[in-house]
Specification:
There is one protein chain. It is built from 12 helices and 8 strands. By secondary structure, it is of the alpha/beta class. It folds into 2 domains: 151 residues, Rossmann fold (3-Layer(aba) Sandwich); 142 residues, Rossmann fold, CATH 3.40.50. Helix 5 packs across helix 6 and helix 9 packs across helix 10. The longest helix is centred in the middle third of the chain and has 29 residues. The radius of gyration is 20 Å and the shape is globular. The chain starts with a strand and ends with a helix. The model has no long low-confidence stretch (mean pLDDT 92). Bound molecules: iron/sulfur cluster. The site of iron/sulfur cluster (SF4) has 12 residues, from helix 3, helix 4 and helix 11.
Length: 308
């Protein structure tokens, strides 16, 4: 049996967990390739016009997987319990894909996380194991191994980022959902450009998530969305160590438009660039905006040194 996993949306957050889980169970996985224009174009055909860019990309990845695997893993994350809720689009992803590809020969593997209703993460993985014909003990073993692998990757990323916070090069905190920041078609050009400008991108998603959730209240205590709360908490953790902040969002994202506005009003000591990516080709405008932003940061650094 082959399980297809779309390289989109929450893949960028949970891929170690999912891939290790299936590997431990001896189930082969097929991951769709990194996003390219063809994938975006095919997703745009199936998405409604009002869809956000990541949802269009997600549908493009699902389409790519059709005919290449036996089942496609489609997560539906509604609530992370006390951490908060998820954006409505994650919750709807499963039903949107099922509806968009009705009539095509696809079998979807449901992955429901609703910690308010269905118990913890472990329960969802046990039911995933059942859906691929594995016994409870096998699934439990696979889940524990997956958790361990996920934790090891998270710790290594955090240590690497702590290294980047040392030294005196200009550091820019990049704040965005992992499926935007790490997708080579969406966030890739931004990270490449920041590096080419001799700055060090610090990724807000790489953070102690528990601490970030607590610290988010220092900027806003009323945000309903768990993932946005973690990003806001990461800003509070990293604000002392960076020279500027890039808020990377995709069009049209409801949660980000509200959260970014709050950040701009409440984080006043740092230059903040609000970058809205719409998936259009061409990077000239992007480069110009980032160059100007980095210039502003250098002027501010020089000014701070003169005043010190
Ligand atoms: S948070 Fe924004 S970008 Fe992400 S799925 Fe929701 S609307 Fe789309």
């Amino acid at each position: 049996m082959k399980i297809g996993i779309p390289r989109a949306l929450l893949y960028y957050r949970y891929h170690t967990l999912w891939e290790t889980f299936f590997e431990e169970l001896g189930v082969e996985t097929v991951i769709s390739p990194p996003t390219n224009k063809g994938i975006l174009d095919s997703g745009s055909i199936y998405a409604i016009d009002e869809s956000c860019l990541p949802m269009k990309i997600f549908l493009g990845h699902v389409e790519w997987l059709i005919g290449r695997c036996d089942m496609i893993l489609l997560p539906r994350i509604a609530s992370l319990g006390r951490q908060g809720s998820a954006c409505m689009r994650y919750q709807a992803a499963y039903d949107v894909a099922r509806n968009a590809f009705r009539g095509r020969q696809i079998k979807l593997l449901d992955y429901n996380v609703d910690l308010r209703k269905n118990g913890g993460q472990i329960e969802t993985f046990l039911s995933l194991g059942r859906a691929v014909g594995k016994k409870r003990a096998q699934s439990l073993h696979a889940y524990l191994a997956a958790r361990q692998a996920d934790k090891a990757v998270g710790t290594a990323e955090l240590l690497h980022q702590q290294d980047l916070l040392r030294g005196d090069r200009c550091r820019i905190l990049v704040v965005g959902h992992p499926y935007n920041v790490y997708d080579p078609y969406v966030g890739g050009p931004v990270l490449d450009c920041l590096r080419a400008l001799n700055t060090v991108p610090i990724i807000a998603d790489i953070v102690d998530r528990r601490e970030a959730l607590e610290r988010s209240a220092n900027i806003s205590s009323t945000l309903p969305w768990a993932f946005n709360r973690q990003l806001v908490g990461a800003i509070d953790i990293y604000r002392r160590y960076v020279d500027g902040i890039v808020l990377m969002s995709t069009f049209p994202c409801g949660p980000d438009s509200l959260v970014n506005e709050i950040v701009v009003r409440r984080v006043r000591e740092l230059p903040v660039l609000n970058l809205l990516i719409d998936g259009q080709e061409g990077s000239a405008g992007l480069e110009t905006r980032l160059e100007s932003f980095v210039d502003i940061i250098h002027f501010k650094r020089e000014e701070d040194i003169t005043l010190a």
